[in-house]
Amino acid sequence: MPASNYRAAADYTEKIPNNVSLHEDRRLQRALESWQPNFLTWWQTMGPTLPTQDVYLRTAVNVGRDGWAQFGHVAMPEYRWGIFLAERDAGRRVGFGEHKGEPVWDKVPGEYRAELQRLIVIQGDTEPASVEQQRNLGATAPSLYDLRNLFQVNVEEGRHLWAMVYLLHAYFGREGREEAEELLHRNSGSLDSPRILGAFNEETPDWLSFFMFTYFTDRDGKYQLGTLKESAFDPLSRTCEFMLKEEAHHMMVGTTGIDRIVQRTVEVMREHDTDDVAGLGAFPLPVIQKYLNFHYSVSLDLFGGDTSTNVANYYTAGLKGRWLEDRRKDDHKLTDDSIMVDALSEDAGNGEQSIGQTEVSALVGLNTDLRREYISDCQGGVKRWNRILEEGGVAQRLKLPHVAFNRKVGAFAGIEATPDGEKLPAGEWQRRQGQWLPTDVDKTYVRSLMQPVHQRGKIAAWIAPPRNGINGQPFDYDYVHLA
Ligand code: BYC
After folding, report:
1. What pTM did the predictor assign?
2. Residues 31-90: pLDDT tens digits?
3. In which region does residue 89 sit, left (phi positive, over 0), alpha (psi from -120 to 50) or beta (all else)?
4. 365 lines ligand 1 (CB under 6 A)
5. Which of 130, 142, 278, 441 is least crowded, fewest Cβ atoms below 10 Å from its Cβ?
6. Atom 13 in ligand 1: which residue has the minimum CA distance?
């Protein structure tokens, strides 16, 4: 392990906490220090809008067991966004593709520069995008506990942006620095310069959307980071490995957030002996299902096309692997393998297209492979929420819609289908989509429940309290001091 690449302890005397020996590279340090004020300006103008004195936050001061989760009340603009890479494994070798078995790379190979930069820019673009999407949620937080979790997610997405910007500055020269600036200039939902991927230009205007986003869209992040963690470009791999640790908290926020919403809906349904809880201060199950349908389907789009030569090239080159690559029992090259992917097939005779599958080479089907891993993980959430319904004696169940439902990317982008996977004739979608996706009426109802509860120990009526607080603190802890 060369000392210049890794130090266990973060140096807090520097402006930018890091374990990458930033002080040994003055040029890089200066570049990052000149990006930092732009980042802070972005945070002030596009970050959380609710004024606070301080928030009980987790800060990473190191990557080791004790260092990555230091809790304390912090004024958010003074949060110490740092650069942390997981420890280096000196003997690590490329796990897949045509370079399989060779030592991993500490530098960017010239022939893969453009592709690597693109992957890092796309990943980096999502991080500030989510902060922008969530910026107004503080004003309607259901409790101080939830408010604190929102801010924890936000500061960590900010840190994940730092993680990608470090790679751009350290390894991609002038172009990398320009891309790092662009990451602060594109904005979620902007007409002139939107964020790169579709889901990151959607609104997150309420907490039902927030929990669905952290469940479904952050989970795409988990899977994409998992594949980049396999990368032969070792600094990217180590960065993603550490980001994944933080990502687990975001998953927890989404999973338990929906648990608590479903729990509360069940309680109100039982209390009033009715399915119709609209007007009783809880979310009706059909509304929860519509929000689930929306967030799940836009998150499926984030995996790209069902077939993609981009992803085949990334894999062959060793840039982006598969989820849990080393657990796969094959040759890790896939040149002779095939996979069934979703596709539209032409029905012989009438020229109609129908929802089906087709066999393609395993390499071009890798987006499908990853999407399937993601889908089976998402089933876990639905199972959990249905258990809450079952235990509450409620007969209805939630479910994931069919992969063809509401898709804008991939084989089914050109058709419309029901959540059960039935292809709709032209015109039917417009008429029926309100049964499956949130309507203006649903959104207005959801927003009507978004009244802030900012008193210690109190919680909004549409959500159950959490089972556990943060870092062993009780639910009624003073997680946030408002300004
Ligand atoms: N919207 O060959 P294809 C996270 C473009 S989330 C708009 O199938 P590929 C987080 C595509 O760019 C994880 N455009 O694509 C979560 C391509 O354009 P070009 C983010 C899209 O490359 C919550 C064209 O369509 N990280 O971390 O195989 C909070 C053809 O597509 C979309 C990553 O995604 C879309 N949805 O796969 C905070 C990892 N999808 O080249 C954070 C890095 C595709 O023809 N990115 N296009 O102009 C990648 O691995 C891949 O680029 C993608 C796309 C999986 C995104």
Report:
1. 0.95
2. 999 999 999 999 999 999 999 999 999 998 877 766 677 899 999 999 999 999 999 999
3. beta
4. no
5. 441
6. 221
